[in-house]
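Dear H.,

Thanks for agreeing to be a second pair of eyes. The structure we're designing against is below in token form, covering all 127 positions.
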């Protein structure tokens, strides 16, 4: 399948974060697809989103996932679902980079739809 410029909104861009980076691969009405790279020994904030759910698929490395009251360890080709309004966290407990694909679904997919409950990098709550 070939994507026309009208299919993909905006340019593919990588944003650096203290824990690694993410790259928006594609986005459209009601969905966004990202590649997320988490450095060994790092983790994202304990957070939730009011307007979106997320599906995470591990490409390589090991993911430690906290979702609601569950804790999972996922490896290559395994996945999990993060419901809207559910506290969650992604961590790389391994020694190689964690690479995963995140598929977001919802009416609003802005980066400011985040409530941080705990953050290793002392970033302020954005919601």
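And this is the sequence the design step returned. I haven't edited it by hand at all.
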């Amino acid at each position: 399948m070939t994507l026309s410029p009208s299919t993909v909104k905006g340019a593919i861009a990588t944003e650096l974060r203290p824990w690694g980076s993410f790259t928006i691969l594609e986005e459209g009405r009601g969905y966004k697809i990202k590649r997320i790279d988490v450095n060994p020994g790092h983790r994202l904030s304990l957070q939730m989103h009011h307007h979106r759910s997320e599906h995470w698929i591990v490409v390589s490395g090991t993911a430690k996932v906290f979702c609601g009251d569950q804790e999972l360890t996922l490896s290559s080709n395994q996945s999990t679902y993060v419901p809207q309004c559910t506290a969650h966290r992604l961590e790389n407990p391994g020694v190689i980079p964690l690479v995963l694909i995140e598929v977001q679904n919802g009416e609003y997919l802005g980066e400011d739809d985040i409530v941080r409950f705990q953050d290793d990098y002392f970033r302020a709550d954005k919601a």
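Two observations from my side: The longest strand covers residues 20-28. The chain is about 0% helix and 50% strand.

Warmly,
E.
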